[in-house]
Design goal:
Length: about 450
């Protein structure tokens, strides 16, 4: 499956802004586990906390409780551009004309290397490799009010991103003009909250208000909430948010992620029925799709694989012996569930095919009689250039093999991918990005 990218969280007008941000980032941890950071505005004085690792490792409750301030922005990172190093941890905090500015973004900017080079040719020095710093450098060169300057910069750059910018007494939240990345707004009493996904509101007991529109800039200050808009562009929302990235308890692009995945499974069962004894998901990302398949087909759902959730990077990275365990470190078979059974294995996608093959082998060794693979998305044939870490096209198994060849490679009895129509129907509506399936890139 493609790798996750970043998550952002912001709050304006709450006396425990730091604590709320820590909780919000904790809920968004699935979107990035490499590093975490937050910046709190305490009446114009900005305090920053950052570190490599998980939210629970980077911020201690005691430390965060000690930070005063009523507004904050935070970030969890999975690097899609730039190295995974402490300098690149967001939010980026700078001072311009003696005013602190903090910025955090999720996604990627189109042609950022070229833009960066132009700046460097002009003698500008960058201290990080992030697109956030590039946006800041562009911002400081503009004239006008803050929203006008932001609008000028963001109309100039194209890309797939959501953005939070914190100034003393003002917070801006932005969704890119095509709406690739999600960004939602909520309220906790009088405080205004922003997050990549609505699941961050539940932990805070905050109320979901709405999703930002594509190209919308929301400004929050003591005067209230105002909206500005970037130049209009055609909507292009990343369908993988619904297939894989977002948590099933979130609402994304106006859809319940849970319901969309249930529909994907149902449609898959209608498009590719098969006689079998059990339906089993590849946990956890295909759990709901497998449930949909089971309900529609009437075949019982069983859990044939168990996923270990407690593998930290530090446990795997330094030990060759542990790395050699491969998928076994993450997944183990439940033999009693699969032994002697005809199994329908449901997964969200196939990227390189190597993990799928190992999992099929594992279930076979556990005693399954035959395996039918069902995938709740079309074949990924092309790389993503919009901030998702898919490998080079050459490494995508579906870019060079037909479904029948992939079936042979995986050594399964049958293999079926959900059709694009089936996926669209499951996610209700149009205006989605399908570039990694079609190779047609809007940017
Ligand atoms: S190419 Fe695929 S992963 Fe990338 S934004 Fe589009 S749908 Fe999402």
């Amino acid at each position: 499956m493609p790798k996750e990218y970043c998550g952002i969280f912001g709050v304006f007008g709450h006396k425990s802004a730091g604590r709320l941000s820590r909780l919000g980032l904790f809920s968004l941890q699935h979107r990035g586990q490499e590093s975490a950071g937050l910046v709190v505005d305490d009446r114009g004085e900005f305090h920053s906390r950052k570190g490599m690792g998980l939210v629970s490792e980077v911020f201690s409750a005691k430390d965060i409780e000690g930070i005063k301030g009523t507004s904050a922005i935070g970030h969890v990172r999975y690097s899609t551009s730039g190295e995974s190093t402490p300098e690149n941890i967001q939010p980026i905090l700078v001072r311009h004309r003696d005013i602190p500015i903090a910025i955090a973004h999720n996604g990627t900017i189109h042609r950022s290397r070229e833009l960066r080079k132009k700046f460097e040719d002009d003698g500008v020095i960058f201290t990080t490799e992030t697109d956030s710093e590039l946006i800041l450098k562009m911002y400081t060169r503009q004239k006008g009010s803050r929203p006008e300057r932001l609008r000028k910069v963001l109309n100039r750059i194209k890309g797939a991103f959501s953005l939070l910018v914190l100034f003393p007494g003002e917070l801006y939240a932005v969704r890119d003009a095509m709406g690739f990345r999600p960004l939602v707004m909520g309220r906790k009493s009088r405080a205004v909250i922003f997050a990549s996904e609505s699941c961050a509101f539940d932990i805070e007991d905050a109320r979901f208000e709405r999703e930002l529109k594509p190209g919308e800039i929301v400004k929050v200050s003591r005067k209230g909430v105002e909206s500005f808009f970037l130049e209009k562009a055609e909507k292009c929302r990343c369908i993988f948010e619904l297939i894989y990235f977002s948590r099933p308890d979130s609402f994304v692009f106006g859809q319940s992620v849970y319901e969309s995945r249930l529909n994907m499974g149902r449609n898959l069962a209608m498009e590719a029925p098969v006689e079998a004894d059990i339906v089993m998901p590849i946990p956890d990302s295909a759990n709901i799709q497998a449930l949909g398949y089971a309900r529609q087909s009437g075949i019982p759902l069983e859990f044939g694989l168990l996923r270990n959730h407690y593998i930290g990077r530090t446990f795997i990275a330094p030990h060759q012996e542990i790395r050699d365990l491969g998928v076994r470190i993450k997944h183990t078979p439940i033999r009693t569930a699969v032994r002697g059974k005809r199994v329908v294995m449901v997964d969200d996608s196939i990227v390189r095919g190597t993990t799928s093959k190992k999992l099929v082998d594992m279930i076979k060794k556990a005693g399954a009689k035959e395996i039918h693979m069902r995938i709740s998305s079309p074949p990924i044939k092309f790389s993503c250039y919009y901030g998702i870490d898919t490998p080079d096209k050459k490494k995508l198994i579906a870019s060079k093999k037909s479904a029948e060849d992939i079936r042979k490679f995986l050594k399964v009895k049958s293999l079926y991918y959900l059709s694009r129509q089936g996926l669209e129907k499951a996610c209700r509506g149009d205006g989605y990005c399908f570039s990694c399936f079609s190779g047609k890139y809007p940017l």
